[in-house]
Amino acid sequence: MRIGELAQRAGTSTRTLRYYEAHGLVRPHRSANGYRVYDEAELRVVREIRSLLAIGFGLDDIRPFVACLRAGNDSGDVCPDSVAVLRRKLAEVDDYLDRLGDVRRRLHDQLAHAIAQREETCLRTRGPAG
Amino acid sequence: MRIGELAQRAGTSTRTLRYYEAHGLVRPHRSANGYRVYDEAELRVVREIRSLLAIGFGLDDIRPFVACLRAGNDSGDVCPDSVAVLRRKLAEVDDYLDRLGDVRRRLHDQLAHAIAQREETCLRTRGPAG
DNA sequence: CTAAACCTTGCCGCCGACGTCAACGCAACC
DNA sequence: GGTTGCGTTGACGTCGGCGGCAAGGTTTAG
C-alpha cells in the first residue's frame, strides 16, 4: 500500500504520515522508484498514534506504544514502557484536573462577584425602588 | 516609574511589558528622552493581566478587563464585556473538564487493562503455580 | 503525446507569549 | 572620558503537529 491509500484508510494526510516517519514512528519500505510502501500492520500503528494523540499524548510519549505493537503484541499498551507512560499521563491529567478545578472555582466566584456588583450599581443608579 | 521598576514590581520582564504595549494592553507616556513612563495605575493593570493569563486567558480575552479598570472601576470584571468573557471562559473550562474527565477514564481503563494483561502473561510464563 | 494523478524532497507558515540577542542612545558616577 | 547600567527598536528563536506550496519524477489512461 502506498502513502495515499494509507492516509485515506487511516483518516489522515500524506503530510502527516511523512511527519510521523521523520519522527521515527512509521517505517515504510521503498519500491524501486522511491515510493513509500507500507504493509498492513502500519495501518494499526497509525491508528494507535492517532488515538493517543487525540487524548493529549505527544509523539515522544507514543513511541513506546508503537514499539510495543511492533514487538508483536495485540495492543500497544501492555509493555512496561507503555505502562510507565500511561501512569505518568494519568498523574498529569489528575494534576491538570485539580488545577482546572481551581480555575473553575475562581472563575465562578469572580463571575458571582461581578454580577453582585452590577446588581448593586444598578440599584444605586435607579434608586432602591428601581 | 520607568519600565524596569514596573517590571520588577509586577514580577515580570521589560520584554513582557513592551509586548503588552504592542498589543494595546498597557499605555505608558514618554519622557523627553523617549523612555516609557508609567503611572501607578498601570501596576494594577499589569497585575490584572498576569492574574488572568495565569488562569488560561489569552491577551485578547483580557482586553475588556483592562478597559474596565481604566474606566475607573475598582475591579476589572464588573463591566458587561468582562462578564461576557467570564461566562464564555467558564463554559470553556466546563467543557474542557468534561473532556479531560473522559480522557482520564480512558487512561484509567487502558492502564487497568494493560496491567491485567501483564499479570496474565506472567502467570502463563511461569505456569499457573507461578 | 499529453494530461492527470500519483509520488518525491525541501522549506516556509502557523499559533502565543514571550526569551534573547544586536546595535544603538542616554544618564550618572569617578 | 571611560565604565556601568539604564533605556530604545528590530528581528529572529521557541514549542508541536502539522498545512501548504514549489519544483520536480513516475505511472497510467486516453
TrEMBL record, chains A, B:
Pfam families registered for this protein in UniProt: MerR_1
Alphabetized PROSITE patterns for the sequence: HTH_MERR_2 (PS50937)
Signal sequence residues: none
Matching InterPro entries: DNA-bd_dom_put_sf (IPR009061), MerR-type_HTH_dom (IPR000551), MerR_fam (IPR047057)
Record's keyword annotation contains Transcription regulation: yes
GO molecular function, one term: DNA binding
Ranges for domain HTH merR-type: 1-68
SMART domains named among the record's database cross-references: HTH_MERR (SM00422)
Protein name as annotated: DNA-binding transcriptional regulator, MerR family
Biological source species: Micromonospora tulbaghiae
